[in-house]
Specification:
The complex is a heteropentamer, with 2 copies of chain A (266 residues), 1 copy of chain B (311 residues), 1 copy of chain C (251 residues) and 1 copy of chain D (273 residues). Chain A is α/β, with parallel strands linked by helices. Chain A has a 7-stranded mixed β-sheet with strand order 1-11-10-4-9-8-7, sandwiched between helices. In chain A, a hairpin with a 2-residue loop joins strand 5 and strand 6. In chain A, helix 4 packs across helix 5. The longest helix of chain D is centred in the last third of the chain and has 38 residues. Helix content of chain D is 77%, strand content 1%. Classes of the chains: A alpha/beta (266), B alpha/beta (311), C mainly alpha (251), D mainly alpha (273). At the A-D interface, strand 2, strand 3 and strand 11 of A face loops of D. The complex binds adenosine-5'-triphosphate (2 copies) and magnesium ion (2 copies). Chains A, E: This is ABC transporter ATP-binding protein. Chains A, E: It holds the Pfam family ABC_tran.
Chain lengths: 266, 311, 251, 273, 266
């Protein structure tokens, strides 16, 4: 395990960062200062987690990266180029799933492509593929309200995968599903991403989850959010889940982060 | 229906301030006859006279029914009355169990049509003449409503039109006493329209007025003819059976009390109106100061009477 | 309610009320309340009358036109209010005033401005129903989960796509609820308006019946109107039910 | 772990709703402008005039002022408020009781709900002309008109509020051995209070319509009399002034009730804002 | 660690069970069979967790014990006596907190005593004591909407403690608060209960939480819920939280339960 200082990107990552944020500062209003001077790099093909106490600005940062919020100051770079607003290379997975309640699973998954006016036949084929991929084959014609929370989140994930973005942005994707489903989902997500070459930026409150899934953990301090530290957990991801959860490095990382965060709680 | 041969002599939109009923049959017969001579008439029925007056003033309709003296005086509206349809014939009525004569009404609660209405004027006039003072005067618009309230025993002293008088006599014989009135010579309902319109549509107006006079005279000669005429011209086919049954007795009564003037009004009748309406307070000022031509446009009636001969 | 193990649907309690009405009528307790059965007989006669049919047809036409206009207006106002703070502040003030004001007192003025024809009735319908549709649409727009909007944006939806593919559908349950309320209000508005000015035969019939003590006919006319209002609103209620499933599923 | 050097950053522009013009919130300025616009349009329409029977705004205001000064308006509202207050008190009391009963008792619900739904969805105003035959032309008749229009909405709102009282609060009360009475009085009713009050507010608005209608259709007293009398003597400025006060009064009344509700019945809301 | 067979109560527990359920069966309607023949004992002073897949009947069982639901068949015994309905010896802590929004923290905490008509002065003193106990001193006059989720749950806990019941029933008490707060809360709860002599029956979805806090874990099978197994984690609770989370017994128990439950997930 290595705890690198903030702003000090590891040399390997610097060579190929798909997303970079520079000097991001965000005020919601003169007295709500959400983020203060955040600099970060997200290496291509890796999973980065944003972790921090509630209200520290994780969602704000993620939305700025997604282009859904304008930073008060600072730039977002994708593939080295400055971007403004949303773009097809970044796809969002929502905490509350954000499915269209009036559309079937199939239409929901194909919705990103529907908006870019892709041919109906084509987009539905593609949607079907990803519905299979997330394990929902057979549910194409169901409506969201007929699915369990876990299944709905899979639809949201399939939708984001279907538009073939390089970057997946996930805001607490598992917080609305129950613990056991969540644990299953984490394992499935890792398996799925092993095949797809995606860069994932992931917000969570769960230290175990962060450590379990990420290549890089960014810890933010309470509002105004600043980078508190960047941690790169180092244990083999080839082992089976149970072994990872007993790994000393894994447990040490969890422990170190918890020791750090608990001082911010009421 | 309008014979195919008749040429178009213009259109007139009539706004009534009341729902259609038996008392309009005579007017509608005249209208049907005017139609035969090429005048197209559209009718609408509004909730109250003042609404109808507003409709005329704002140009939503051409001819109104009523006595808009106050309107003409107050807002200086360019409207003129041009045909006297009926005379003011109201029937003061009391609950026979409680009152028998005008002199009993000291301290009584009285219900009349509206503030400043002819009904109020009559009741106040009679109070003055008989030296009584009412306890209160409340306003209950609609003879029908007052009749209903009388029947229900909700009010004991009121004043109703002759149609409702018949109704009261029918529904509760003996219960009510109708108090005597000295003769009042004033217009109850007249036709009125915009002065300009009257001039520009003179041909159609002349036809209507002629037919009105003819019809009025026919009915005054034989009230029972009303039924045959109604059927002949298919007038107001939708009115209630009760009202149809009442047609002959009602018109017979009406004719007997000179309800329907034979000549459609004249300068003299207008002067009598001035006298009554200044006394009642509807018009402000001294009756002698009023000019007929400020309120009436008598040219069509005069012409028709000339043509048909005065009665 | 359950009696002897069978569930009796709530509407059946109306039968009890009707039976009560019949009894009171038969006993001649109140002369304004004739027995229900004779009212029904009159109702059959009433709907065959020419003047009633003409009035009903005119009213129905005006309704369809008026409701179409107020849906377009109301929904647009609601969307404008839902998307702009300033518009909400300014339009919202007027919409709220008109939604709760006793608009009936304006009907005589409408007659003055719009004449004695169908226009006045159409305007009455619009005046009575637009505001509640606007308010409900506004509530619906405010109710749209922000993440649904963000989802649209993140997938690059154009403004038009956002409106037609997301916002409209997401607010649909409230819009329909508003339309139903607007409809009920419009029926009430027309009746009140016609009682006050009586441009169509409806008001005239009410007056004639009550002036002539024809209470059977009076009630028959009232019952017809009630049935009309209920039928109309349950038709929309049925539509609402169809979209309800996802309204419930929303967070 | 080092914090990045803090660079002085300028806060963003203040948000639109905080903007002010000469110390007045910008929103109020726009609202004021829209009101002025409407009145100017009215004035122009009256000056044209679109009809002799359509007065100008200034004329109407003059008439309003005159009626205020000579007390006619106060007298009229005192008359109008009598049946309104009596009617609202009656339908409020019985409406809330029936509504609560319906919310708590299945049989009561079965019996009452459909009839009130029918009454609420239908134009009961049509029955106002009949009232005269049953209740005459006095205060009673007008009070009945108010009740007819106000009661259904009060009953149904109360019923819905009680019906949807939070099940977990009710369970909480039961789990602490609350009696049925405590459950109703200390949990269900306060929980339902906002919706009940919304219903009362709607009821007052409906009752106000009822009383105005009764004054226009039964016997002209109070504001209804100001409207119909001035119309019958063609004093249109006074008539419009009376109509204007009706709209204004109902807007003020509704706003006032909202304030009362927040201030006296939901302390936590007041504190929260 | 010992995984006892279902229905086989450990001999030690049998000697002093404060709550027992016998042959509990619950049908919500003829076709919704929620619980089937459940027999369980809850040893005095211990913490028992109900664990199982979503919809297996955990909440149903807890409410039957609380007396909030009538079982279709079977009995609930408290201190050896059969009970019907709720009773002062059992207090409930609600998942959604169930606080009165119109009452201050003080009145909310004292509400249980208000219902039993205790003297105002007395009950407020007592309420204040427990408000201190759960760490909310200074918030007495706030309204629930002014508090964070974690603080609201503390109010709910204080209310349950204030009525001095022997048994605390908690239905997923932490599921509405964020992960980090939850972790803190678990530790605080254990510390708090160490002083108070309470028996706790606790429903959760989180395997770690169950193993971390309980003396006894009851695992239910999917609907109709039956007892699948009863597990008594055996590791020392005297160690500090971090050590417990690294304890082999702890990790083994978590792993064994997870292996058992994951087969029920979609
Ligand atoms: N639209 C907004 N307007 C004003 N302030 C906001 C807005 N959104 C967020 N904030 C404030 O900005 C800060 C950061 O919010 P943000 O949602 O990014 O936090 P977070 O780290 O995602 O919190 P959580 O863990 O609770 O999701 C918070 O204090 C929040 O109150
Ligand atoms: N009031 C009810 N009416 C009918 N069925 C119900 C009712 N409450 C619960 N159920 C059903 O009974 C079963 C058990 O429900 P219960 O809430 O006890 O499960 P649970 O284990 O608490 O689930 P979760 O983990 O999701 O909270 C579920 O299938 C549920 O659908
Ligand atoms: Mg967040
Ligand atoms: Mg549960």
């Amino acid at each position: 395990m290595s705890v690198s200082a903030a702003l000090d990107n590891s040399p390997k990552a610097a060579t190929d960062d798909i997303v970079e944020v520079r000097n991001i500062t965000k005020y919601y209003s003169p007295d709500v200062h959400a983020l203060s001077n955040v600099n970060l790099s997200f290496p291509r093909g890796q999973m980065t987690t944003l972790l921090g106490p509630s209200g520290c600005g994780k969602t704000t940062l993620l939305k700025i990266i997604a282009g859904l919020l304008e930073p008060t100051e600072g730039d977002v770079l994708v593939n080295g180029k400055q971007v403004h607003g949303t773009g097809p290379e970044r796809a969002f997975v929502f905490q509350d799933f954000a499915l269209l309640p009036w559309a079937t699973v199939l239409r929901n998954v194909a919705f990103g492509m529907e908006l870019t006016k892709q041919d109906k036949r084509e987009r539905e084929d593609r949607a079907r593929h990803y519905i299979n991929e997330v394990g929902l084959a057979g549910f194409e014609n169901k409506y969201p309200h007929e699915l369990s929370g876990g299944m709905r989140q899979r639809v949201g994930l399939a939708r984001a995968l279907a538009v073939n973005s390089d970057v997946l942005l996930m805001d607490e994707p598992f917080s609305a599903v129950d613990e056991q489903t969540r644990r299953k989902f984490q394992e499935d997500l890792l398996a799925l991403l092993a095949n797809e070459n995606k860069t994932v930026i992931f917000v969570t409150h769960s230290i175990e989850e962060a450590v379990y899934v990420s290549d890089q953990i960014v810890m933010l301090s309470p509002r105004p959010g600043r980078i508190h530290s960047i941690i790169r957990p180092e244990f083999s991801r080839d082992a089976d889940p149970d072994e990872i959860r007993r790994d000393k490095n894994y447990l040490d990382t969890v422990e170190a982060i918890w020791a750090d965060l608990r001082k911010y709680l009421d | 229906g309008i014979p195919a041969a008749a040429q178009d002599k213009g259109t007139m939109r009539v706004a009534f301030g009341d729902v259609p009923g038996g008392e309009m049959v005579n007017f509608m017969i005249a209208v049907a006859r005017a139609a035969e001579r090429g005048v197209k008439v559209e009718t609408s029925y509004l909730q109250s006279e003042d609404l109808a007056a507003q409709a005329i003033v704002s140009g939503q309709a051409d001819i109104g029914v009523g006595t808009p003296y106050a309107l003409i005086q107050k807002v200086n509206a360019p409207i003129r009355m041009f045909y006297q349809l009926s005379m003011l014939r109201f029937n003061p009525v009391v609950n026979g169990d409680k009152y028998q004569a005008w002199t009993d009404l000291d301290g009584a609660d009285v219900a009349v049509h509206g503030r400043g209405s002819g009904t109020e004027a009559i009741m106040q006039l009679m109070a003055k003449e008989n030296g009584v003072t009412y306890n209160s005067v409340s306003y209950v618009p609609g003879s029908g409503v007052r009749a209903g309230a009388l029947l229900q025993g909700r009010i004991d002293v009121s004043i109703v039109d002759y149609e409702r008088r018949r109704l009261l006599e029918r529904e509760a014989p003996e219960k009510f006493i109708f108090l005597p009135l000295p003769e009042i010579k004033a217009t109850d309902e007249a036709l009125y329209a915009n002065r300009e319109w009257l001039e520009s549509e003179s041909e159609a107006v002349a036809i209507l007025v002629e037919e009105l006079i003819k019809t009025w005279r026919e009915i005054n000669a034989d009230p029972a003819a009303i039924v045959a005429l109604r059927e002949k011209y298919n007038v107001l086919p939708d009115i209630e059976q009760i009202e149809v049954d009442e047609l002959v007795p009602a018109f017979t009564d009406g004719v007997s009390i000179d309800l329907f003037p034979n000549n459609g009004g004249s300068a003299e009748s207008v002067v009598e109106d001035f006298t009554f309406f200044t006394t009642s307070g509807t018009l402000e000022g001294d009756a002698a100061d009023f000019k007929v031509e400020d309120y009436w446009y008598l040219a069509p009636v005069d012409a028709a009477v000339d043509k048909l001969g005065a009665l | 309610m359950v009696v002897f193990g069978t569930r009796i649907p709530p509407v059946f309690s109306l039968l009890i009320w009707i039976a009560l009405w019949e009894i009171v009528g038969q006993l001649d307790l109140a002369f304004i309340l004739p027995p229900f059965s004779s009212v029904m007989q009159e109702l059959v006669l009433l709907i065959q009358r020419n003047d009633f049919q003409a009035a009903a047809w005119l009213t129905f036409q005006s309704f369809v036109i008026g409701m179409t206009i107020s849906i377009v207006f109301g929904v647009s106002i609601g969307f404008i209010m839902g998307t702009s703070k300033i518009a909400n502040g300014v339009l919202g003030m007027w919409v709220n005033i008109f939604a709760s004001a006793p608009l009936s007192s304006l009907v005589p003025i409408l007659m003055l401005l719009f004449g004695l024809g169908q226009t006045t009735i159409v305007v009455t319908v619009v005046l009575f129903s637009t505001w509640i549709i606007a308010l409900d649409t506004y509530a619906g727009v405010r109710h749209i989960s922000p993440s649904l909007v963000e989802m649209g944006r993140s997938f690059g939806a154009s403004r038009f796509q956002m409106l037609t593919k997301i916002l409209f559908w997401a607010a649909l349950p409230e819009i329909l609820a508003g339309v139903r309320m607007g409809l009920i209000r419009a029926v009430k508005g027309i009746v009140i308006g016609q009682l006050l000015v009586s441009v169509v035969a409806l008001g005239r019939l009410f007056r004639t019946f009550s002036d002539n003590f024809q209470f059977e006919q009076f009630w028959a006319l009232t019952v017809t109107l009630f049935i009309f209002a209920l039928l109309f609103s349950s038709a929309i209620g049925w539509l609402e039910q169809r979209v309800e499933y996802y309204a419930k599923a929303r967070i | 772990m080092s914090d990045a050097p803090s660079i002085a950053t300028t806060p963003p522009m203040p948000m639109a709703d905080r903007e002010t013009l000469l110390g007045i919130p910008i929103m109020r300025v726009y609202q004021g402008l829209s009101i002025v616009l409407v009145f100017v349009a009215w004035e122009i329409a009256g000056l044209v005039p679109i009809s002799i029977a359509f007065p100008t705004f200034t004329g109407t205001m003059r008439a309003l002022f005159e009626m205020l000064v000579d007390g006619r308006l106060f007298y009229a509202y005192a008359e109008t408020l009598k049946p309104l207050v009596v009617g609202i008190v009656i339908s409020g009391t019985f409406g809330v009781i029936i509504g609560i009963a319906m919310g708590l008792n299945k049989t009561a619900q079965w019996f009452w709900e459909p009839i009130f739904v029918v009454l609420q969805a239908s134009p009961v105003a049509a029955l106002i002309p009949l009232i005269t035959y049953a209740y005459g032309i006095g205060l009673t008749a007008k009070t009945v008109a108010v009740i007819m229009l106000a009661a259904p909405i009060i009953v149904l709102n109360t019923y819905k509020a009680v019906r949807h009282a939070s099940p977990s609060l009710i369970e909480m009360c039961r789990s602490f051995q609350g009696t049925r009475f405590q459950e109703i009085w200390m949990v269900i009713v306060p929980n339902a209070a906002p919706v009940i009050f919304a219903g009362l507010r709607l009821g007052v608005a409906a009752g106000f319509i009822g009383v105005i209608l009764a004054e226009l259709l039964i016997t002209p007293t109070g504001v209804g009399d100001l409207i119909s009398y001035n119309r019958s003597i063609a004093d249109y400025e006074y008539m419009y002034a009376a109509v204007f006060t009706v709209i204004l009064f109902s807007a003020i009344l509704v706003g006032f009730l909202e304030t009362v509700e927040v201030n006296y019945f939901r302390p936590e809301k007041k504190k929260g804002q």
